[in-house]
Automatic annotation (TrEMBL):
Protein name (record): Ion-translocating oxidoreductase complex subunit A
GO annotation, biological process: electron transport chain
EC number annotated for this UniProt entry: 7.-.-.-
Subunit structure: The complex is composed of six subunits: RnfA, RnfB, RnfC, RnfD, RnfE and RnfG.
Location(s), subcellular: Cell membrane; Endomembrane system
Bilayer topology annotation: Multi-pass membrane protein
Gene: rsxA
Keywords: Cell membrane, Electron transport, Membrane, Translocase, Transmembrane, Transmembrane helix, Transport
GO cellular component, as recorded: endomembrane system; plasma membrane
Pfam families, A to Z: Rnf-Nqr
Function, in words: Part of a membrane-bound complex that couples electron transfer with translocation of ions across the membrane.
UniProt similarity note: Belongs to the NqrDE/RnfAE family.
Amino acid sequence: MKEIFTILVSAILVDNFVLSKFLGCCPFLGVSKKMDSALGMSGAVIFVMGLASAATWPIQTYLLTPLKLDYMGTIVFILIIAALVQLVETIMKKYLPALHRALGIYLPLITTNCAVLGVTLLNIESQYTFIQAVVNGIGAGIGFMVALVLFAGVRRKLESCDIPKSFQGLPITLVAASLVSLSFMGFAGLAENMFK
């Protein structure tokens, strides 16, 4: 249980895919303008990361590795992620049309979100068990949500600030993102030292 909790905390705070590994920056910068779309995208990413971790681990373990087809892993994982994103998009379109419209192009971009592919590959590289892989996937999704919600708050605060003309738009967004990323460096060593 201690190891599962360590993986979860590490995925959320210490090894945050957006703020520590810099994966998934496109939706991070694109969807963080409004809190409701940030939460909607986060929910979709958590769902896709968790399911992708659950689907890719057995395929790698029981199919690709025994057949010595490890080199096909990335292609197979991308196909699985694409199928899961299509499922999420179909569900959102039917049951949450306002959120589907708000997310726009960023929802299909989950397929090419390198954070989702990164978590599935990291699960295999770290030699996690099935449960550990799923926990890491869900934790990485929650970490994505934490980063997105924090940054949406920062961007909302920036709207009321007097920003010099040369920094308006993308420059101040990137500066703010780098400062949020630096703040997450303070969590280094947290997961390993929690139970000492």
